[in-house]
Amino acid sequence: MKQVIPIFFTVDQGYVPYLSVAMASLIEHASSDYQYHIHVIYESLTEDAMKKLKTLEKEHVKILFSEMKTGLESITNRKENFLRTEYFTLTIYFRLFLPSMFPEYDKAIYIDSDTCILGDISQFYQVDLGTHLFGGCKDISCQDNAILCTYFKENAGVCIDEYINSGVLLMNMKKLREVNFEQHFLTLLNRYHFDTVCPDQDYINAMAYGQILYLSNEWNAMPTKGKHLIKNPKIIHYNLFFKPWHYDNIDYADAFWKYANQSLFKEKIRKEKENYTKEKQLEDEKKFNQLIERTSQIIQGDTTFKSVFESGLEKRI
């Protein structure tokens, strides 16, 4: 019997076209020596969307859908829970609940939907986590921004060279259950309502610091306007505003369009690109400046992860 490799994506209806690109690229490069269970954890997906994604199944790849219904009642539409200060979406939190939702797995992979997978994902899965809670890649997309680097250090209490991006994770599901990561997260969330601009990511870094295995950035290569290009990336993550379906001249864009042009959602993706006007691009720039301004406000506040942990009021995991 082939070893089962569980892979999780979380998505809402608006991101389904890009998820189709990520899944198609993953499946094309996945070794047939393994059986893959791709779990799509969703909020409000249509039957048509699920049906189209199901067409990607292969003999060694099973695609399963689970609606996220419980456990998130206390995560409300408050500004400190907004992604990049812009909007509220529960999907970014889904990854934190996977260990308890799927007790049958001792280890699993989580991947954001704005990705393109060009390497054999079984190689990522075979990395030995040891006793670490997570395996992840350092967030190179923010390394050249001094204000964001200061934010990570003063809010999460983690220096940029130890701060991981949560868009691609190898998860020690068994140990995350043993340390009750989910409950600890909810306790901190409801007790302190920490201000953040990247909520799930800040919580993971702040809580699991010291128990993260740092992996090669070939597994989470992010566009950085040509500054930190990875020669042979195995996973490309179109992080922040660097979306090839919005902008020209994005690093690694050719990989995305290869699979987008084969997707059942290709017309929708092309129209999104065509309709992303100069005005929308200027709005992105405004949003990024607002994000930077918000980070400066947060680190001046009285309650940060760093201040709470250093005071002894709470402990990291």
Q: Output the CATH class name.
A: Alpha Beta
Report the uncertain regions.
74-88
CATH topology: Spore Coat Polysaccharide Biosynthesis Protein SpsA, Chain A
**Main beta-sheet strand count, sense and barrel state:** 7 strands, mixed
Mean pLDDT: 92
Strand content: 15-25%
Outline:
The chain has 317 residues and is an alpha/beta fold. The protein is built from twelve helices and nine strands.
Question: Could you characterize what this model shows?
Answer:
About 35% of the residues lie in helices and about 15% in strands. By secondary structure, the chain is α/β, with parallel strands linked by helices. It has a single domain, classed as Spore Coat Polysaccharide Biosynthesis Protein SpsA, Chain A, CATH 3.90.550. Strand 1, helix 1 (about 15-30) and strand 2 form a beta-alpha-beta unit. Helix 5 packs across helix 11 (about 280-300). The longest helix is centred in the C-terminal third of the chain and has 22 residues, at about 280-300. It is globular, with a radius of gyration of 19 Å.
Task: Provide tags for this entry.
317 residues; alpha/beta; 12 helices; Spore Coat Polysaccharide Biosynthesis Protein SpsA, Chain A
Draw up the topology in text.
Blueprint lengths: L3 E9 L3 H14 L5 E9 L3 H8 L6 E7 L30 H4 L6 E4 L3 E3 L3 H5 L8 E5 L7 H11 L7 E8 L1 H6 L2 H12 L6 H10 L3 E4 L19 E3 L15 H8 L5 H9 L3 H22 L5 H7 L6
Parallel strand pairs: 1-2, 1-4, 2-3, 6-8
Antiparallel strand pairs: 4-7, 5-9, 6-7
Helix pairs in contact: 5-11
